[in-house]
Structure formats: structure tokens, C-alpha cells
Amino acid sequence: MKEILYSQFLDTLLEICPINEETKSLLYPYLNSQKLPKGTHLLSIGEISDKVFYIGKGLIRSYYFLDEKEVTGWIAAEGEFVSSIYSFLREKPSFENIELLEDSQLLFISYSDLQQLYYTHPIANRIGRILSEKYLLISDERIRSLRMLKAEERYYRFCLQYPSICTRAPLKHIASYLGLSRFTLSRLRGQKIKLDLLP
């Protein structure tokens, strides 16, 4: 399983950063594979996130509680990297849970191994920087979306950007992620809109 996942992992990296054969061989020993069932928590509130996961197969979300209400922080599918970023980088207890929404196949690297890679191999630093920039842009876009877009614009833009997640994730989690009620999202799903006219 690890070999198949590693091939997918390299394909994902090659989409964002050129890497040579030496780099491909370099990364392999640092990565471990896991096959886990739906409902597994990769991380629970109060634990320290000490791994970054690559999703080879599956669907994952983070969630936390606000006024005793469950709030979805993000949802990710194949080809994405996930962790509790604050907890991972600061080595502090997490304020969020990370849960598998589907049976999943994952690669992961530990915090200590990643730091060793950064220290000994400049290419690992470059890959890490490019991935960090990618997810910073995603985070910035989400903040702007919540502040500036109407409900229907938020939902349809989400479907354009993440069509797989839009059809696979439970409605309640998508609604929570977008800051919408389940009623509003159900209504929007029943409407038709010209997607190419969205801002």
C-alpha cells in the first residue's frame, strides 16, 4: 500500500514543485502509511498534533466546539495534506478534532522527522514553503468568502473548487464549514445557477 500512496504523493508534489529522482528517493523512508476506518479520530482536542497526513484515499474534516455547538473547520479529500496547524507548529495542545469521514488510506510524517528533513535538505524546505503558501492562500480565501460573499456565492464557489467534497461530505458538515444553516444549504442545492457568472 505504501508504494501506491507514495506514487500518488509524488504526483501531487510534482503538480506544485519540480523534484528530481534523488528527492523522490530521499522522502520515502520518512513516510509511513496507515489504513483507517471511517469515524477514526487522528487527533482529539487537548492532544498535541505531531504528524502531517497526506490523503491517498478518503475524506477528513476538522471540527471544534463553539458555545457547545460543533463547527467544521475544514474538509479535505484525496491529494491534500492535513494537520492541526497551530498545534503542529507550536507543539501545543490542539483546539480541534480531526475525524475520518470515510475509510481512508494515509501517508504521514512526524514532526521530528520533518524538522530533520528541513535541517538537512534544502529541497525539503522549499517543498514545505510552497505547501505552506498554498494552504495560506486557501485560508485567506475562506476568510474573504465568509466576510464578502452571499450564501449562494459561498456554496457554489465551494462546489466549483471542491466538486468531490461537495458530493461526498454530509450536508451538515458542509453547511457548518460555509457558515450556513442546513435549511439554507438544502434550499441552495435545489436551485440552479449559472456557475460561470460567479465572481
TrEMBL record:
SUPFAM superfamilies per UniProt: cAMP-binding domain-like
Pfam family, one: cNMP_binding
Domain Cyclic nucleotide-binding: 19-117
Superkingdom of origin: Bacteria
Extent of the signal sequence: none
Protein name: Crp/Fnr family transcriptional regulator
Organism field: Larkinella knui
